[in-house]
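Progress narrative, Year 2. Work on Diaminopimelate epimerase from Natrinema salifodinae advanced from sequence curation to structure prediction during this period.
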Amino acid sequence: MSVPFQKYHGTGNDFLIIHADEYVPDRGALAERECDRDDGVGADGILYLALEERFSPPRVVMTLVQPDGATAPMCGNGARCAAEWAMRRTGADSVMIDTQAGTLRADRTDADDIIIEMGTPTFDPAEVPVRADEPVFGEEIEGLDVTMVNTGVPHAVAFVDDVPDEFFESEVSRSSSDAIDDVDLETIAPPVRYGDAFPKGTNVTIASPDGSGGFRQRTYERGVEGETDSCGTGAVAIAVVARRLGRTDADPVAVSPPGGDLRVSFNERGNATLAGPVEHEFDGEVTVESPAEQ
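Result:
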């Protein structure tokens, strides 16, 4: 028994999209198998989407299952991929995305990018969540100076000039935007990701100023348990933290993960928006257990 999927990516953050009506008895097991880049199709998660065209603009109910089999409440690039998927089916240039972190509006821009509202970021320890009495700004946690913010999911944000020397793979100038490439993210991130301070774990995002008010980005994602080519909530986290700490006054803030270029803006309500390209890669099918095999 098999179900069809479509493969999309937003700046390298890639997902299998399966219509929510398709029968998948164990979504977690399917994600663990098919997100594997050696033995499966390879992806940063599986998006299950239900399209409700009776609304104006159309609505999409989005559920993200990550490679570890767990469900994530929000994914910025995943939501942008969901929006592109829905727009292609309806012909609409605006859609509403229902996520576990709230309902978000997405629009197609004149440049054919997808821009999506990302809600209101919060530093509140109870909402991040992080075990702290006050918001965490530049405090040492598990060997790394981080600022904690929730942009739909928790992020521990650090800038390269705060990364200890032992976590660089070579001697580099911290003022260089290339310094981020030499950070040993696979070593420095896991202790923070699983730190006792975080009751639900955290993503770990490193930023390096690009010299023009923007930033380069690398993110170790919770649920993927490794670095991804892009992370939309991480890009928003960098922009929010950088503005809060006085590291930039740009708007939009350009953020460049390894997979491409994103733009983070702030609207009149104080909500962040995330914009960038989305691409449809290919279609295929994956095998699932039939009812008789369960």
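The CA atoms of residues 125 and 132 lie 6 Å apart. The chain has a mean pLDDT of 94.
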